[in-house]
Structures are given as structure tokens and as C-alpha cells.
Amino acid sequence: MAQTTEGASEIVEDVRFNFMIDEEVRKHTVLKITNSILLDSVGRPMPGGLYDPLLGPIVKQAPYKSCRQQSFQCPGHYGHIDFVSPVYNPLLFDMLFNLIRKTCFFCRNFRAGKEEVNVCTSKLMKIAKGDVSGAKDYVINNSDAKDIDLEEIEE
């Protein structure tokens, strides 16, 4: 008897992408890139470099050193580089620029009123708990602002 999946759809309704934290990146990689030299004097990949065989063979017919599969069977392997200082993700630069613009360089606080900060904090707490619709209820407007009790939200 054939198995069927009810409710299966050929239409993609939702796709989400997230950024991994450092520990997740390290967990999913097969190699820490430690060598800036790509090839040795005779053209062989240097261990710990960007052409390290653990990341994939240079020749298509050769099997992957990590999984022993051929290139058409293997989805690929990733490496990671540990930087000495933080590096900004270029995809997040606009958001970072807005945060910097809204930050006071002397006191390192946001340039916003206390009420606006409370509303934003409350929204973030609601979102962190999975209550996105509840977060939408908060309004940043002195006359229409909902009373915010941070202890109630934290519980």
C-alpha cells in the first residue's frame, strides 16, 4: 500500500533564514581555517587553508575527504575562521548603522525617551516569548500608549 502525505503542497508558503551564533557555526563546520597560504610550492592544497581537502576536492572525480562521497552526491562542507576582533556582517550594516545613529557616544544609551525605551523593551520581551501579536499592541505615542508593567511581562 502506498503512503500518501495529506496536505502536501507544491507551493512554498513560508521561508525563514536566521544567522547562526559562533557555537552553531563551529558545530556545523568540518575545519577551522588557520592557514592563509592556499597551495604549497608544487600546487597542493595546504592543510588548514581554504583549499584544504576536508572542504572538498579540487578535482571533480576525487572523493571528498570528509565523507568519502563524490561531488555530485555530497552537499558540501564548510569551514570557519575565528577572527581576533568582531567583524560586522555586511547584510546587517543598515540595521547597525541605524543603531549607531540612535546611540549617544558619551553615555552609551539610546537617544530616546524613557517611554519609548519601555515600549521597545516590552515588545522585545513579548516577541522573545513568542507573543508577536501581543507585541503589536504596544504603541509609542504619549497620549495613546498602553500602560506597561514590565514585571507582568517578565513572568
TrEMBL record:
<dbReference type="GO" id="GO:0006351">
    <property type="term" value="P:DNA-templated transcription"/>
</dbReference>
<keyword id="KW-0804">Transcription</keyword>
<comment type="similarity">
    <text>Belongs to the RNA polymerase beta' chain family.</text>
</comment>
<protein>
    <recommendedName>
        <fullName>DNA-directed RNA polymerase</fullName>
        <ecNumber>2.7.7.6</ecNumber>
    </recommendedName>
</protein>
<dbReference type="GO" id="GO:0003899">
    <property type="term" value="F:DNA-directed RNA polymerase activity"/>
</dbReference>
<dbReference type="GO" id="GO:0005736">
    <property type="term" value="C:RNA polymerase I complex"/>
</dbReference>
<dbReference type="InterPro" id="IPR044893">
    <property type="entry name" value="RNA_pol_Rpb1_clamp_domain"/>
</dbReference>
<keyword id="KW-0240">DNA-directed RNA polymerase</keyword>
<feature type="domain" description="RNA polymerase Rpb1">
    <location>
        <begin position="11"/>
        <end position="125"/>
    </location>
</feature>
<keyword id="KW-0808">Transferase</keyword>
<dbReference type="GO" id="GO:0003677">
    <property type="term" value="F:DNA binding"/>
</dbReference>
<dbReference type="InterPro" id="IPR045867">
    <property type="entry name" value="DNA-dir_RpoC_beta_prime"/>
</dbReference>
<dbReference type="InterPro" id="IPR007080">
    <property type="entry name" value="RNA_pol_Rpb1_1"/>
</dbReference>
<keyword id="KW-0548">Nucleotidyltransferase</keyword>
<dbReference type="Pfam" id="PF04997">
    <property type="entry name" value="RNA_pol_Rpb1_1"/>
</dbReference>
